[in-house]
Specification:
There is one protein chain. This protein is mainly alpha-helical. It has one domain (2-213): Rossmann fold, CATH 3.40.50. Helix content is 38%, strand content 8%. It has helices at 2-6, 19-26, 33-39, 44-51, 92-99, 113-119, 129-134, 136-146, 170-173, 175-179, 199-213; strands at residues 11-15, 61-65, 86-89, 125-128.
């Protein structure tokens, strides 16, 4: 989705602007921990200020890719309402399978599912990624319409490779994104089997996901 929006000529993207502050506060063992914190901003106040900064000349849209789990319990939320917010859902069983390829230890909060339930109150739209991938053009048109942004066909294809806007964590997480040139089809294979100790967490995550999904956008 970030690649799609960045391919617009009027849009600047921000890649997980709260990530460094999240790691500086939690010191969780993420790949590239120290490098990410050093890249900053490592304080939440500074990161939020950057999110709300005036746009550069010629830029009409700031597309910010946020991860729900980057919001810690005491992180300021008052600024969120000043933005136009869309919650993008993904089957948590697939999130767990992807996440554990990089970090073996994972909790419900690590993948942001409880935080998504909270954030839903601030979001104008909830979009399920599997739905979106069945009709990217239709969904992007409707998302743009709902957000009062003109649809641009450039949002449907983009050149492969890395971007200067990618976070320093890209080499750990973005191999599939870097190889992409468009939206692919929704997954048809079942989610990979999870270790037994993750089953109870996954069940709880799926219950929250289904609750959120009941209010999703359909086109």
């Amino acid at each position: 989705m970030m690649r799609s929006w960045e391919n617009r000529s009027d849009t600047a993207v921000m890649d997980e602007p709260l990530y460094a502050a999240y790691l500086a506060t939690t010191r969780l063992d993420h790949p590239g921990l120290d490098e990410i914190i050093e890249a900053g901003p490592a304080a939440f106040d500074d990161a939020i200020t950057a999110c709300l900064a005036p746009l550069a000349a010629g830029i009409a849209v700031s597309y910010q890719k946020h991860m729900a789990h980057h919001l810690l319990p005491d992180t300021d939320r008052s600024w969120i309402g000043g933005l136009r917010n869309v919650l993008l859902l993904r089957d948590p069983q697939r999130v767990f399978a992807s996440y554990t390829k990089v970090r073996e230890s994972v909790t419900l909060n690590d993948i942001g599912v409880p935080q998504q339930l909270e954030l839903a109150e601030h979001c104008e739209l909830i979009v399920d990624s599997d739905d979106f991938l069945t009709d990217p053009a239709g969904y992007q048109r409707e998302i743009c319409r709902r957000l009062d942004v003109p649809f641009d066909p450039a949002m449907l294809t983009w050149p492969s490779g890395r971007r200067g806007s990618d976070g320093v964590w890209a080499r750990h997480w973005y191999s599939t994104v870097e190889a992409s040139t468009s939206f692919g089809p929704p997954p048809t294979d079942p989610p990979a089997a999870l270790p037994p100790h993750l089953a109870p967490i996954a069940d709880e995550a799926v219950a929250i996901y289904q609750e959120l999904r009941a209010n999703r956008l359909t086109v």
